[in-house]
Amino acid sequence: MNSYVAGFIVFILVFSLAVVSNKSQTAAFGLDIEVAQEKEEKPEEKQNQQIESVSFGGAIPSGNPKANYEKYNPEDFRENLGLFILTQQQRSPKTVNRATLPSRTTTSLLWPVASRTITQDYGKRSSLLGGNVHEGIDISVTLGTAVTASANGFVSGTGDNGSYGYGRWVSVNHGNNLTTLYGHLSRINVRNGQSVVAGQLIGSSGSTGFSTGPHLHFGVYTTDTFEILSSNFGPVPVGGPINPFDYLASSQGQVLGASTQTPGGISQTPTSQIQSPVPESFIIEGPDRTRDFLLDEITFKFGGFVSGNQQATDDLRFETRLLGPNQGSEIWRGTFSKEITYKLNIKGSHQLVFEVRAKTKSGTVDPTPASWAFRLAHSQRYGEVQIGSVRPGFGSVDSEQISIRNTTNSNINITRWQIADSTSRSPRIGQGVEIIQPRSNLNFLSDIILPPRGSATIFSKTSPLGFSWRENKCTTHLSRNTFIDGNTNYENCYFEERTESNFLHDKWNVYLGLFSPILDDHSTLLLLDESGAVVDVQTY
């Protein structure tokens, strides 16, 4: 009896010293991202970066008791150490009222990963923690395995506990008094409050937090007891746990135990668990992710590899998709090419995500596709006003001009729109005079409005009249001050024709008032609206 008491006292002293020594070294890393983005890197660099990313929580601080107690393989000890640091009141048991739970006959949860190998079952107790319940199941998976939502719901919490607890974790509220928890993730692909559907990617498996190797901790709690508490190492999820097997669909997992131990006590992986080589994907080139993308055509370059298997790498094919409005977000399209170009005929400003996943000859796909998020800045008028001819000045601003046309049956105001080319300047279109009066002091500026199916010629130079104008039946006489060959000058023509219904033509002459050209011999020209969003693009 005395030996047990002495052992318990030693444990408490060691544990207390570990907590004190670690407290000052622990930082809370907030990780709440919508889309994980891969760096531009070579395959070997991607491997190194991936290893770094899953150890983001930091190395186990000095003084951590793992080295002393590793012989017990106490996964629940390492996870629950985070809870142990909370106050006694915070970590007091949460009572589960089973009368509030959904029926097991009508409710089921999808497995969050493909693996069914359980390395630690629900309810297993660690003597090191006085019999605390393991509040979930640990599922054996390889590093970077896709983790998906078990049912429809919304993300009720995300966190990163560094070297403590569940490391990076996500919780999902399913609206039926069930909340699921996914722990030890290497990557989080969702944000707080985001709606998710069953089977949707929410993260990638890892070994963050207190973990002895890559696996997924999957827990189920009653929502009415589930809460997220603050601690000195980030938000901690706690609640009244339920055995996940009460609701997990289909067959139960295989619990690794004595049956998988050799006579020498060495754990063996069942033959059914041997997997085909898993490919990795990476993106080499895409649009600038730090600013809005303006062009209407976009190209991605990508690649993949199978670690340690050059032949499998050479045989890789790829599947790509572009997630966004009207882009067929559920469709993966196969290709043997390592480059793809999209034509983005989309109105408005949108967040888009390009994804690519490598696929082996045997059909094994990368469970965590490489992704590239960017923002497209197209105008709501995109495609409604189109660039026609472009005439560079070849060094002279006087002969430089651009034609544009309204392709709709509605009036379109182009005042304050911009012309952007190879120079850093983006001159704006100013106001103009719709009906030129014979006496200049009666000409007043107003917005330039292209009539339905109307057009405009945009000149880089300064207007000979001092303003932009809309053509009419008499503007061909603007340079004539006297009667010539039986024709009249502008003033006489104006007073004679101004009441005619067809007096105004559907064309404007717009002058930018520049003193130097903006067009190169060959380049790409952008027509931008007043907000800087793309209306049309022309390569000349």
Quick synopsis:
The protein is mainly β and 540 residues long.
Report on this structure:
With 540 residues, the protein is mainly β. It has three domains: 2-92 and 107-258, Glucose Permease (Domain IIA), CATH 2.70.70; 280-375, Sandwich (Immunoglobulin-like); 385-539, Lamin Tail domain (Immunoglobulin-like). Helices cover 11% and strands 31% of the residues. It has helices at residues 2-23, 43-54, 66-69, 75-85, 310-314, 490-497; strands spanning 117-120, 125-126, 132-133, 137-140, 146-148, 153-160, 168-173, 178-188, 195-196, 201-205, 215-222, 227-229, 236-238, 241-242, 254-255, 280-285, 297-305, 317-323, 333-335, 339-343, 349-359, 370-377, 385-391, 401-406, 412-413, 418-420, 432-433, 449-450, 455-459, 468-472, 504-511, 524-528, 534-539. Strands 1, 4, 5, 6, 7, 8, 9, 10, 11, 14 and 15 form an eleven-stranded mixed sheet that branches. The longest helix is centred in the first third of the chain and has 22 residues, at 2-23. The radius of gyration is 34 Å and the shape is elongated. It starts with a helix and ends with a strand. 36% of the residues are buried. Residues 1-5, 8-91, 126-131, 251-275 and 482-486 have low confidence and may be disordered.
Helix/strand layout:
Blueprint: H1 2-23, H2 43-54, H3 66-69, H4 75-85, E1 117-120, E2 125-126, E3 132-133, E4 137-140, E5 146-148, E6 153-160, E7 168-173, E8 178-188, E9 195-196, E10 201-205, E11 215-222, E12 227-229, E13 236-238, E14 241-242, E15 254-255, E16 280-285, E17 297-305, H5 310-314, E18 317-323, E19 333-335, E20 339-343, E21 349-359, E22 370-377, E23 385-391, E24 401-406, E25 412-413, E26 418-420, E27 432-433, E28 449-450, E29 455-459, E30 468-472, H6 490-497, E31 504-511, E32 524-528, E33 534-539
Parallel strand pairs: 1-15, 27-30, 29-31
Antiparallel strand pairs: 1-4, 2-3, 4-11, 5-10, 6-7, 6-9, 7-8, 8-10, 8-11, 11-14, 12-13, 16-17, 17-20, 18-19, 18-21, 21-22, 23-24, 24-29, 25-28, 26-32, 30-31, 32-33
